[in-house]
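Re: How this chain folds, sequence and tokenised backbone to follow
Notation: Tokens come from a learned vocabulary of local backbone shapes, not from coordinates.
Start of record: The labelled sequence and token lines come straight after this line.
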Amino acid sequence: MLNLVVILSILFGTYLVLTGLDRWSIAIHLDAGTRGRISLALVLVFTSIGHFIRTQAMVHMLPPAIPMREAIIYVSGALELFFAVGLLVRRFAYIAGVCIVAFLILVLPANIYAAVNRVEMGGHHLGPMYLLVRVPLQLILAGWTYWFAIRRGRAPLRGIGHPVL
């Protein structure tokens, strides 16, 4: 459950800090979309790191019948890093957002499997009750992605001289 608290703290905390900097700094000015994408990118970096330092624990979140489980964990961690970078490059934010929502949908069965089988990783040991927290978290992340990357990503890019963020 600590992971969920950390994820939400990174997401909302970063957004609040960046909003404060935007309001009270004369040097840093970030629009809401950029602040939201940076916050989500940091969450993805955090979750990606877990794929590389807790690989074996995450392998058990996948059914044994799935081949190359360790490779899947590494690839999904790399994808999360790739998505994070995509969010930070404004012209790729929309497609990164669509990919993130698809990714969240695709990993949900692994979270269900892990909870039902009480895998000792990230709160899944609590069993199906864990899904009462995990599913809303994934909905929050999907909603955040839609709001700050997909919806805002449809707006036309301003002139060439503007920063990529």
Summary: Residues 156-164 have pLDDT under 50 and may be disordered. Helices lie at 2-24, 32-53, 55-59, 69-88, 93-116, 131-153. The CA atoms of residues 3 and 122 lie 6 Å apart. The radius of gyration is 17 Å.
